[in-house]
Amino acid sequence: MSNQKKRNFQIEAFKHKVVVDPKYAEKTWKILEHAIHEIYNHNASGLSFEELYRNAYNMVLHKFGEKLYSGLVTTMTSHLKEISKSIEEAQGGLFLEELNRKWNDHNKALQMIRDILMYMDRTYIPSSQKTPVHELGLNLWRDNIVHSSKIQTRLLNTLLELILRERTAEVINRGLMRNIIKMLMDLGPSVYQEDFEKPFLEVSAEFYKGESQKFIECCDCGDYLKKAERRLNEEVERVTHYLDTKSETKITNVVEKEMIANHMLRLVHMENSGLVNMLLDDKYEDLKRMYNLFRRVHNGLSTIREVMTSHIRETGKQLVTDPEKLKDPVEFVQRLLDEKDKYDRIISSSFNNDKTFQNALNSSFEYFINLNPRSPEFISLFVDEKLRKGLKGVSEEDVEIILDKVMMLFRYLQEKDVFEKYYKQHLAKRLLSGKTVSDDAERSLIVKLKTECGYQFTSKLEGMFTDMKTSQDTMQGFYASHPELGGGPTLTVQVLTTGSWPTQPSVTCNLPAEMSALCEKFRSYYLGTHTGRRLSWQTNMGTADIKASFGKGQKHELNVSTYQMCVLMLFNNADRLSYKEIEQATEIPASDLKRCLQSLACVKGKNVLRKEPMSKDIGEDDAFFVNDKFTSKFYKVKIGTVVAQKESEPEKQETRQRVEEDRKPQIEAAIVRIMKSRKTLDHNNIIAEVTKQLQSRFLANPTEIKKRIESLIERDFLERDTTDRKLYRYLA
Amino acid sequence: MRKEDTVKLISAEGFEFVVHKDAAMVSQTIRNMLTSPVVGSFAETQHGEVTFPEISTTILEKICKYFYWNLQFGKETEFHIEPELTLDLLGHCPFCHWMFEDKIVA
């Protein structure tokens, strides 16, 4: 039949087979009813599908659909009632098995019934808005079995009891559990939820409440977390084995709430085993567990973070304020680095490299490092120590690592300009005394500082390196043009650009005649090659190697400072000199002279001079002699000046003052820059912007900014607005 | 052709058509008959034969032809039905209804 014809034809329903037998419906139904019984009794093999199908078809066709349907409901219900009884009668453990078996039977029967009633399912049921056969079968099962008064609670209790038994480490028949739970799920989500899931969650909450209470009384934090983790995994596993996957989050939420959220603070603060102890003892595993468990609950991570932060702050504060630990700056910085390493390791191995934790760590360090105003100085001293000797024999990569760590501490500093000041001083000493171990390391650190703080920050430091290089060339040129100087003392001059180097008020001492003649020659050479320059001698910064022979003919080469050389040279012409005489002859400033004499006469094993009276300190009335008995097992003897490694209190004050002075123009420059672009701005905004601009160098003090603004007003850079006194105006 | 791969369809007059199961299962109804749950299934499933006491040989033959036609060409191609058979195909056979529902608009 072609499509074309299809449209033209309208075929009337077939009417030839008129039912004459009034008992037709009853008879046909009897056949079908019998078949349903047989199916439930596992006796279908004698039935002809074709016949049953045809009968059902005919019944529907002859408008007995209603009879067929209601007959089905009644027959099935009566079967289910019988099944219900047999399930009720099942004893103890057999109950679930029986239920499961009957459920399987019912499903099979339902399948067969649906097949023979397919025609009804497809035509009669949709048109009369009845429940389809399969669904009907499930509903009847639900109402007659699962919701039967004698089964409903028993089923729930059995299931819950089995789960409880499994929680107390018994082995249960998981396959059976899965089938029964699957049955509840097949009966519709509401059946699963109402008849199982809800009570299950309630009972679980109760169970874990009790258990967590018990654990927390007797376990330490680490053990408790282990137990909680295991419980959590068990529940997840349970879900995968026999519960609806949607239950997973619900049941884990219950465990999380009862075992973690409710005891969070107590766990974290648990005495002798809480978070702080874990941090102290580097318990990576426990910390990781805590992180992973707490992450699951609201506020969990922030709780860990807060406790960690306050712990770091507290220990850090102790570290930077403990006067004992401040004695050795290198040790002090090493401790900071160790502390940082420790927490870096914890965060990377236990806290999943969590950014928020890293930030918390950084802010904690920033907080406590700046509690100690000497931190910048100490960090610079640490670098100094490392670059002087600490890096000998260390590979290039390791040097980089150390420098990177130092840079990290540097980043925490608020007063970066103070660091710069000290760094400059220390670098100058290193360069001038030729003590720097590795030029590469020095330069690498400068590059790092440059990337961190910009060109401005390091330009002077770089200038210092350039000076050193140029000086070498100058000296070569000098000796090349004065070949006659070969025999006498050798002079090495480093020409330092004023401004690049930390300047100290230069008080020139009287150099020995041989030296001052040489210096004059250099001066005329240098000024001859460079016009328009001025040279002044920084005798306080130099060193000298001199050869000396003592009473019994022992010869030594002494490595001393320029001042010390001046003093020692005096003894070429005298055996005894009083303090006053030395002071007069050399004109070395009193404090420097005392220090220099102290190191020459009072240090055991290096006392090339002898002093009367013998005492530790230098008095104005002391007299000095060459120590003829001086011996040393080394030919070369280095006589260090007694220098304070750390700055003394007045020096510190001085540096501080210099820093403050240096800040003034920077603050002013920042104010002018801002005002130039803004034209008018109110007081608070200026303070905020200036602070922000200068943040990379130091933390500007608001009162200082205010003073600078006033100074700028006085100098007619700014004016106050005539109406609003808080508003400033830029005067071009 | 192995026996377990075939099914015997018997007409009202007793003619037997042995067809492939694949072909017979073009009819959802026959598929249901042959694939009922294994335990306690219907007689047809066990014996591998179905008797149609209300379907004449001519019609059953036509039905079998359709099975193979469908298997080979799919539902979409046109299957020729002689006009004199149409009514019988529609009216006599509860099984035809489903087979031809997309072919014949009744």
The tally of helices of chain A reads 30
CATH topology of chain B: Potassium Channel Kv1.1, Chain A
Question: Looking across the biggest beta sheet of chain B, what order are the strands in?
Answer: 2-1-3
Number of strands of chain B: 3
> What oligomeric state do these chains adopt?
heterodimer
Q: Please, how many domains of chain B?
A: 1
Point out poorly predicted stretches of chain B. Answer: 101-106
* Strand-residue proportion of chain B: 5-15%
CATH superfamily of chain B: Potassium Channel Kv1.1, Chain A
Report, as a whole number of angstroms, the end-to-end distance of chain B. Answer: 36 Å
Distance between the termini of chain A: 100 Å
Mean of residue pLDDT values of chain B:
75
Largest beta-sheet characterization of chain A? 3 strands, mixed
Q: Which whole number gives the mean pLDDT of chain A?
A: 86
* Spatial sequence of strands, sheet with the most strands of chain A: 1-2-6
Compute the gyration radius of chain B: what is it? Answer: 14 Å
Keywords (chain B): Kinase, Nucleus, Transferase
Subcellular location (chain B): Nucleus
Domain SKP1 component POZ (chain B): 6-69
GO molecular function (chain B): kinase activity
Structure write-up:
The complex is a heterodimer of chains A (732) and B (106). With 732 residues, chain A is mostly helical. Chain A has 30 helices and 9 strands. Chain B is globular. Chain B has 6 helices and 3 strands. In chain B, β1 and β2 form a beta hairpin. Chain B is α+β, with helices and mostly antiparallel strands and 106 residues long. Chain B has a 3-stranded mixed sheet. Helices cover 45% and strands 12% of the residues of chain B. At the A-B interface, α3 and α5 of A face α2, α3, α5 and α6 of B. Chain B: It is found in: Nucleus.
Explain briefly what this protein structure is.
Chain B: Belongs to the SKP1 family. By secondary structure, chain A is mainly alpha-helical.
